[in-house]
Amino acid sequence: MSNIETARSICPDTHRITGVVYIVDDDESVRSALVSLLRTVDLEVEAFHSAEEFLAAPKGNGPACLVLDVRLRGQSGLALQKSLLTTARDAMPVIFMTGYGDIAMTVEAMKAGAIDFLTKPFRDQDMIDAVVAALQRDAERLEATRSLVETRERWNALTPREREVLSNVAAGLMNKQIAARMCIAEVTVKIHRGQAMRKMNVRTVADLVRSVVALGIETRAR
Predict the structure, then answer these.
(1) For a disulfide at 162, which of 23, 106, 177, 196, Cβ 3.0-4.6 Å?
(2) Between residues 86 and 94, the one the model is more confident about
């Protein structure tokens, strides 16, 4: 890596980037250099010498990414990546680094979900860019998850009749058609529809459809 003292002047604006960068590399000099580099741009960093040490450490629930050496003593980086697929943090973005990478290894890592693969020695800016992109990606993922949880809670708070009305609305049926299908008055459909849309915090049918699709609710205009 190049001189880390220049990192702050060449890196993108990271003052709004939050999260933790986990580093796993059995080379102490590499770990130290990466910790210093990333801290110069005000990122929170935790470093580990092995996959086992990383797995044993507590993890937060906020945005995070993993900078991982492919070749580690004990459990390899690729093996660690695969093991993470069975944990609660399975979606944590992984940036691989190696001094011995080859095409097959890169393909295997990418297929397992790695978002970048840097060959040592790499430029400081390449690592910073990769980490910033990974943290932004994880923040967006967590926000999407939070939003989906809130949407599901709103849906579950609806009455069965309200859910049925909205399912029909999302299927493209008009109020009159919904009334005929449900054997209720059209005015009753309008009342349920208005109340349910407010509860779901959606203003348009397009917003409703996006919410229903995100929840995986099947709608069919039979």
Answers:
(1) 196
(2) 94
Strand ranges (E), 78-168 = 94-98, 116-119
Contact assessment for residue 8 and residue 40, using Cβ atoms and an 8 Å cutoff: yes
Could you tell me the residue range of the domain that residue 169 belongs to?
Answer: 158-215
Q: Residues 55, 66: contact at Cβ < 8 Å?
A: no
| 3-state SS assignment for residue 195 | helix
**What are 213's two structure tokens?**
């699709």
Helix (H) or strand (E) holding 208: helix 205-215
Lookup: tokens for 147? 């939003």
Q: Give the pLDDT confidence of 96-105 residue by residue, as tens digits.
A: 988 776 677 7
Find residue 127's DSSP bridge partners: none
Rounded CA separation 47/53 (Å): 9
Tokens coding 142? 């967590």
The count of domains in the chain is 2
Q: How far apart are CA 195 and CA 199, in angstroms?
A: 6
Instruction: Provide the CATH number for the domain around residue 178.
Output: 1.10.10.10
Position with higher pLDDT, 155 vs 85: 155
Q: Is 132 left (phi over 0), alpha (psi -120 to 50) or beta?
A: alpha
